[in-house]
Amino acid sequence: MELPSGAFIMIWATIAGIITAVVALVSMIISKEQKISEYRESRRRRIRQEAAQYLAQIDTLFKLYECELKSTKQNCLTDMELQKFRCSHKENIYQLFEMRHRLFLRLTPERSPKLKESLESIDQVFFGTSFCEDTLHIHRDSIIKEVQGILRYEWKRVKSGEPDYQKTEKTSKTAIKCLLLFLIVLFGYGTYIFFKS
């Protein structure tokens, strides 16, 4: 039994259409993946920048406190002096809280509860009865460690790609293999028919 000549044209047109559709779909998903990766990389940079600004503001406020201590020649400030210090540096404290909230909103607290705890503890250091250098450094180091962990996690996500992209990549490879197998079988069948007749 011989296939009519129009059948081969129809089969090749269908195969060309399928290949075009697969290429278009893969291109669309790759394009979307690139946009998501660019967004994640931009987000990583902003987290790093905001964490650095927050930590710099903490250090600035603590250095201002140390200068105030040296000027009074005491081991710690009285409640009244501490209140005066806070009032005289309220802009710095406002910036600290603004940076804290910005950082907190950008990060996912449920993924890093220790970071949330450290951010809140920094507030206690600045609004407690005295500034404690050891506590401040412990929480600052904890914030650095947690932010680095989050940045590493984000980098792994950028590197590996989104789950949809990974699925599409696997599906595309499988579809290409199936299509090649189909073409080999079709070519073999066509060759068989050609030499049989």
Topology:
Blueprint: H1 5-72, H2 79-88, H3 90-106, H4 113-127, H5 133-160, H6 163-196
Helix pairs in contact: 1-3, 1-5, 1-6, 4-5
Keywords: Membrane, Transmembrane, Transmembrane helix
Structure description:
- Keywords: Membrane, Transmembrane, Transmembrane helix.
- The chain crosses the membrane at residues 6-30, 175-195.
- There is one protein chain.
- With 197 residues, the chain is mainly α.
- It has one domain.
- Helices cover 87% and strands 0% of the residues.
- It contains 6 helices and no strands.
- The longest helix is centred in the N-terminal third of the chain and has 68 residues, at 5-72.
- The protein is rod-shaped and about 110 Å long.
- It starts with a helix and ends with a helix.
- The model has no long low-confidence stretch (mean pLDDT 78).
Estimate nothing, just give the exact number of structural domains.
1
What's the overall geometry? rod-shaped
Please state the average pLDDT score.
Answer: 78
In terms of DSSP E residues, the strand content is under 5%
Uncertain spans: none
- Biggest sheet, open or closed, and with what strands and sense? none
